[in-house]
């Protein structure tokens, strides 16, 4: 009996010790997760050079504006379907996803501001495109070299299929930069809100997907809103308008063809979204270099820069931050897309465009008339309706 009691006592002690150890490990893991979330939600504020002083850009979203941005991000995260919630890992996954959406929005805001400031000083869209794609290529090579993501094994046939996508990505970025250099950031993003129109058109042409009548009806406020905003835009410029439209066409062509490429791959040559985007970025940079030299290389020289009287260190800092934000927001966009459905991503992208437009209007103090605001709101409302209809009709575009 004494031996049985001693055995029972030792087993209870072992159980208590195991329970205490598991509670300690769970507490440490929660603390580490909280630290990671805190680091994600509180990045160091980006700063921009103006004259000889460093002015923080974070006050742009301080106070009520920051709360509105976070609220918009939370609303986008709330669009998660039940299946996405399960995939994201419940509450912890939803919090992490919300932090990623906030980072996606902030990087997009900073990119548009830095990029616009550089293009105002140096209207060289081809050079800026090559710089942004080159910066992204350096990050991608570091990612592969450090084995943060496995490098793809590419065949000549795969490169031949990806090359047209890279050309479309490069030209789409060129036209976006061209539009940002000619018109207000808010107007460029209003025009780019017409992306669903090109998605429906190109999906019907390349993929044979027929949209429903409701989806076609959602395109009416998009097209009408863009037209109304264009008619009342103070900074309207035909080059800026058609550049934004060309960017829409090229980017959506890239997306539709990427979908067909990923869907038609064999198992032995399959490539995930991150590597496909990475290869497209590297090829786009290689294609942008000769185009930059041909279009702007002769003009863009040290002698020309000195003749402009610009502050070159300041300009380089802005251009580097624009390149960092450019690659960062695109990479996070792909990470979010891997966690949620395309419909949820589309809704979050619609909210992001609203946040970018409002932020750019506040930062650049862009004059907006009531009719212009109505047109922008109608276009963005049509994009949201389009996204909701895709959710309710998953087989239609």
TrEMBL record:
<dbReference type="InterPro" id="IPR037185">
    <property type="entry name" value="EmrE-like"/>
</dbReference>
<keyword id="KW-0813">Transport</keyword>
<dbReference type="GO" id="GO:0015605">
    <property type="term" value="F:organophosphate ester transmembrane transporter activity"/>
</dbReference>
<feature type="transmembrane region" description="Helical">
    <location>
        <begin position="368"/>
        <end position="387"/>
    </location>
</feature>
<feature type="transmembrane region" description="Helical">
    <location>
        <begin position="123"/>
        <end position="146"/>
    </location>
</feature>
<dbReference type="InterPro" id="IPR050186">
    <property type="entry name" value="TPT_transporter"/>
</dbReference>
<dbReference type="GO" id="GO:0046943">
    <property type="term" value="F:carboxylic acid transmembrane transporter activity"/>
</dbReference>
<dbReference type="GO" id="GO:0015718">
    <property type="term" value="P:monocarboxylic acid transport"/>
</dbReference>
<dbReference type="GO" id="GO:0031969">
    <property type="term" value="C:chloroplast membrane"/>
</dbReference>
<keyword id="KW-0934">Plastid</keyword>
<dbReference type="Pfam" id="PF03151">
    <property type="entry name" value="TPT"/>
</dbReference>
<keyword id="KW-0812">Transmembrane</keyword>
<protein>
    <recommendedName>
        <fullName>Sugar phosphate transporter domain-containing protein</fullName>
    </recommendedName>
</protein>
<keyword id="KW-0809">Transit peptide</keyword>
<dbReference type="InterPro" id="IPR004853">
    <property type="entry name" value="Sugar_P_trans_dom"/>
</dbReference>
<feature type="transmembrane region" description="Helical">
    <location>
        <begin position="197"/>
        <end position="223"/>
    </location>
</feature>
<keyword id="KW-0472">Membrane</keyword>
<keyword id="KW-0150">Chloroplast</keyword>
<keyword id="KW-1133">Transmembrane helix</keyword>
<feature type="transmembrane region" description="Helical">
    <location>
        <begin position="166"/>
        <end position="185"/>
    </location>
</feature>
<feature type="transmembrane region" description="Helical">
    <location>
        <begin position="87"/>
        <end position="111"/>
    </location>
</feature>
<feature type="transmembrane region" description="Helical">
    <location>
        <begin position="274"/>
        <end position="295"/>
    </location>
</feature>
<feature type="transmembrane region" description="Helical">
    <location>
        <begin position="235"/>
        <end position="253"/>
    </location>
</feature>
<dbReference type="InterPro" id="IPR004696">
    <property type="entry name" value="Tpt_PEP_transl"/>
</dbReference>
<feature type="domain" description="Sugar phosphate transporter">
    <location>
        <begin position="96"/>
        <end position="387"/>
    </location>
</feature>
């Amino acid at each position: 009996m004494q031996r049985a009691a001693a055995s029972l006592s030792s087993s209870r002690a072992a159980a208590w010790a195991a329970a205490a150890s598991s509670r300690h490990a769970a507490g440490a893991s929660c603390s580490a997760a909280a630290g990671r979330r805190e680091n994600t939600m509180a990045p160091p504020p980006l700063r921009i050079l103006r004259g000889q002083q460093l002015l923080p850009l974070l006050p742009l979203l301080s106070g009520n504006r920051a709360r509105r941005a976070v609220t918009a991000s939370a609303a986008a995260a709330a669009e998660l379907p039940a299946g996405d919630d399960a995939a994201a890992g419940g509450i912890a996954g939803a919090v992490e996803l919300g932090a990623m959406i906030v980072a996606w929005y902030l990087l997009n805001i900073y990119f548009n501001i830095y990029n616009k400031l550089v293009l105002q000083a140096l209207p060289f869209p081809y050079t800026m495109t090559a710089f942004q794609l080159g910066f992204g290529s350096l990050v991608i090579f570091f990612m592969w070299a450090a084995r943060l993501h496995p490098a793809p094994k590419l065949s000549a046939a795969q490169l031949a299929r990806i090359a047209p996508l890279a050309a479309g990505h490069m030209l789409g970025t060129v036209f976006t930069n061209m539009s940002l250099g000619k018109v207000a950031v808010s107007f460029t993003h209003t025009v780019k809100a017409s992306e669903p129109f090109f998605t429906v058109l190109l999906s019907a042409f390349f993929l044979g997907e027929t949209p429903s009548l409701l989806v076609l009806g959602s395109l009416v406020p998009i097209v009408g809103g863009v037209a109304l905003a264009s008619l009342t835009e103070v900074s309207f410029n035909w080059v800026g308008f058609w550049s934004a439209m060309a960017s829409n066409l090229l980017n959506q062509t890239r997306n539709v063809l990427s979908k067909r490429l990923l869907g038609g791959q064999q198992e032995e040559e399959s490539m995930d979204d991150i590597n496909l985007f990475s290869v497209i970025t590297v090829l786009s940079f290689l294609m942008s270099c000769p185009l930059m030299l041909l279009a702007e290389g002769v003009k863009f020289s040290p002698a020309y820069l000195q003749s402009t009287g610009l502050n070159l260190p300041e300009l380089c800092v802005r251009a580097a931050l624009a390149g960092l934000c450019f690659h960062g927001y695109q990479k996070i966009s792909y990470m979010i897309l891997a966690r949620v459905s395309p419909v949820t991503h589309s809704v979050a992208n619609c909210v992001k465009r609203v946040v970018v437009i409002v932020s750019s209007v506040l930062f650049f103090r862009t004059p907006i008339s009531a009719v212009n605001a109505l047109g922008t709101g109608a276009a963005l409302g049509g994009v949201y309706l389009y996204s909701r209809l895709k959710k309710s009709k998953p087989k239609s575009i």
